[in-house]
Amino acid sequence: MSDSPRVLLAAPRGYCAGVDRAVVAVEKALELYGPPVYVRKEIVHNKHVVTTLEKRGAIFVDETGEVPEGATVVFSAHGVAPVVHEEAKALSLKTIDATCPLVTKVHREAVRFAADDFDILLIGHEGHEEVIGTSGEAPEHITLVDGPDHVAEIEVRDPEKVVWLSQTTLSVDETMETVRRLREKFPALQDPPSDDICYATQNRQLAVKQMAAQCDLMIVVGSRNSSNSVRLVEVALEHGTRDGHLVDYAEEIDPAWFEGVRTVGVTSGASVPEILVRDVLALLAEHGYADVEPVVAAEESLLFALPMELRRDLKAAGMDDKMRHDAGSLEDAGQLR
């Protein structure tokens, strides 16, 4: 094996279908309605995406009440509680719901199990927008379980009527460990009808697991409030990478990290545009890491249609309502070699 410096580049990486849909929804809304278009919370958890959309005329707000009456508001990919829809209606807002369809699926599961009077144990991170939105569907039935160490504190009304659901962007391994401990405590615990952790989160973690033991350093491109990006660093360190860092931009990389490093792993969270990964690869090449080898864990081709209300208005205006795909792919990796 050659001892020359190299980069292992994860595929898939970057934008998932839900992020793609949400970002394009804001872009199309700005194009169709003109600025300003308001966005409740960050459309996705990525600093670069938010800054770029702000420059185009998007205004990000924390609460629905900050949006002027009658204005257009986009709900973020993380989903919102029913009360938010009610607030928007009271202000006569034109709403575009960019909630990821995979998050919507979890919301529907929560509603259904609550209707059947189950205690719902929602595995997720306290304060995360997705958890707040899902919990809002059935607050009297949902209890948050923030990781394996929280299980001992959990109590339910009837141990025979309990089900677990999860935030879509968690560590697969940690979630399964939480479920294992919950099942020890509540043997009748039911599983969700289908996996709640999204395909993109799982695939990006799988690629990192395949690379980790070969990497001296793992660089994950992503923002600190991005749950799935933070998890990628943790997964790398758990599976054999000596050092790992989360960066928003290439210029945040400290050349001191390269000391004694032969192999650098590179990946990105599910809300990261591919241009930011290209910048990291360019910087690595400047430091002698020009040999890029793809590590392919899965192929992804899923695209979600734009929100229905936006598609309707685009069609009426004679404008294009097609989606694009901005995730890092095997083809991208090949072009960089």
TrEMBL record:
A single MF term (Gene Ontology): metal ion binding
Annotated (2E)-4-hydroxy-3-methylbut-2-enyl diphosphate binding sites: H45, H78, H128, T168, S226, S227, N228, S271
EC number of the protein: 1.17.7.4
Species name: Janibacter melonis
Catalytic residues of the enzyme: E130 (proton donor)
Superkingdom, natural source: Bacteria
Gene behind the chain: ispH
Cofactor note as given: Binds 1 [4Fe-4S] cluster per subunit.
Function: Catalyzes the conversion of 1-hydroxy-2-methyl-2-(E)-butenyl 4-diphosphate (HMBPP) into a mixture of isopentenyl diphosphate (IPP) and dimethylallyl diphosphate (DMAPP). Acts in the terminal step of the DOXP/MEP pathway for isoprenoid precursor biosynthesis.
Protein name: 4-hydroxy-3-methylbut-2-enyl diphosphate reductase
Family: Belongs to the IspH family.
Metabolic or biological pathway: Isoprenoid biosynthesis; isopentenyl diphosphate biosynthesis via DXP pathway; isopentenyl diphosphate from 1-deoxy-D-xylulose 5-phosphate: step 6/6; Isoprenoid biosynthesis; dimethylallyl diphosphate biosynthesis; dimethylallyl diphosphate from (2E)-4-hydroxy-3-methylbutenyl diphosphate: step 1/1
